[in-house]
Amino acid sequence: MLTSRPYLARGLYEWLLDNEQTPYIVVDAGKPGVKVPQQFVQNGQIVLNVAPAAVRDLAIDNAAVTFGARFSGQPMQVVVPMDALVAIYARENGVGMVFGQEPVMPDFSDEEQAELEDEGRPTLESVEGRAGEEASEASAEDDEAARPEKGRPSLRVVK
Predict the structure, then answer these.
(1) pLDDT tens, 90-143?
(2) Which of 16, 35, 68, 131 fits a disulfide with 23 by CB distance 3.0 to 4.6 angstroms?
(3) How far, in Å, CA of 43 to CA of 9, rounded?
(4) Mean per-residue pLDDT for 68-92?
(5) How many domains is the chain partitioned into structurally?
(6) CB within 8 A of 36, min separation 6: which ones?
(7) Looking at residues 40-64, what average pLDDT do you find?
(8) Beta bridge partners of residue 35, listed in sequence order
């Protein structure tokens, strides 16, 4: 699976703009591929204003956040690979998101996936093939079991 970070970053960026907030990003300047003005890096991080008035040609794609900006009057092309994006938030109130480490999801070949399924691991299956009668009987039994008895409410632990 692809990382969710660029999708969340794009959504949060748009949301902050729609709410008339100033979007800022926090960048881990020590990651490979990061191009930021090193003179402004503090404790290995840099905070950048990415509002439309502060940057040119902002692109938040699946690989990186890129834009042009001026730092101390000098133009620079900024590149922030997605794994270096630490957070996006609003300057005015701090509302936003800090991105944690995402688990690495392995890509399996069809053969590897078939082996995993043969080992008895759970898989998704279609329920369209079930006979209508079996489905209605099962759902009627489930409905009866799920209905609480009349009287005093109580909680029951189901394992």
Answers:
(1) 999 999 999 987 666 566 566 666 665 555 555 556 555 544 545 445 555 555
(2) 16
(3) 23
(4) 95
(5) 1
(6) 27, 29, 46, 48, 78, 80
(7) 96
(8) 79
- What gap in Å lies between CA 12 and CA 24, rounded to an integer? 11
Average pLDDT score over the chain: 81
Amino acid type, 22: T
Measured CA to CA, the distance from residue 19 to residue 36 in angstroms comes to 27
CB 52 within 8 A of CB 67: no
Task: Determine the structural domain holding residue 52 and report its residue range.
Answer: 5-98
Entry pTM = 0.65
Geometric angle at alpha carbon 31, from 27 and 32, rounded to 5°: 130
Give, in degrees to the nearest 5, the angle at Cα 36 between 35 and 41: 135
Closest by Cα among 94, 103, 108 to 5: 103
With the CA atoms of 24, 25, 30 and 32 taken in that order, what torsion angle do they form, in degrees rounded to the nearest 10? -130
Q: Determine the Cα–Cα distance for residues 15 and 93; give it in Å rounded to an integer.
A: 14
Pairing of strands 23-28, 64-71: unpaired
